[in-house]
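Folds abound. Consider this:
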Amino acid sequence: MKGAVLFSTSNTASLNIMRHLESDWKWKKKSGEYYSFSACGKESCCTGLEAFGSPASIIEILPPSAEQVAALRAARSPPACAHAKLAAERTIFDYFLYASTHKSEVGTPALTAHVPGNWGAADFGGSERTLNMAYASKLKQILQLLDEGAKKHKLDWPINMEVDHHGPTPNNGKHALIFVEIGSGQEQWENEIAGKVVAEAMMKALVRPAPQVKVYLGIGGGHYAPKFTPLMLGSEGRAVGHVLAKYRAADFDEQMLKQAVEKTIEPIEGALIDWKGLGKEEREQIISVLEKKGLKWERI
């Protein structure tokens, strides 16, 4: 599956990450809003990678249209490798990685990743009650690469998976989107080691196949998914894509379950419930919906 990077020219962490893709991984800055990487070392390559930028807020940036991609590619040098003309005409990406800041009131340093989208109200962009496509195995891979890179570069920051939250939700959530973030304040957004770690994780995730894992819906717990982060970082062959936090439990119903199942790239095996991360009444209501729709569940 082919991925691309999205970034904001007004986002400090975005620019930090893009600088490291350029300096550490030899991406070429074609303009302020377009970078490319040539795997074969030639100017225009059929196996290359691309990043698309915008001055908009990171949570408002939409995947580029086919016309936008074609125009940016046309500005490059003529195709220089076999089948490059055909590749230049392909404007479809399977998923997008957002190079982003993470914000929190506490300001604790952290590297985070998650699927954007709204189980309920659209408090921070996107459409209400609209999820995006989740690519759970790729999200697991990215979190593991962030953990691996932080250890390698001696960045003693926690690695956290977050629950689904904020926008965008373009095209009614039909795109697979993953936010990869540096948190949680200005000092961290500018941290060069953090930028290096995230750029390295994104680069490796873009060129490596996602791991073969069983995929589940995650339900319960707080914003930083305390039960699901260890599962994603661990070697166990399971992953979660969409995660419903306790504070959104009241928004869970048959329609949202249907979305979560249909908007996951991989087949859903069932639901994993953070048992202590929900109240008794919340558990009962959620389990009744799962069982009515015939989805298996287990407590963790």
Summary: The radius of gyration is 19 Å.
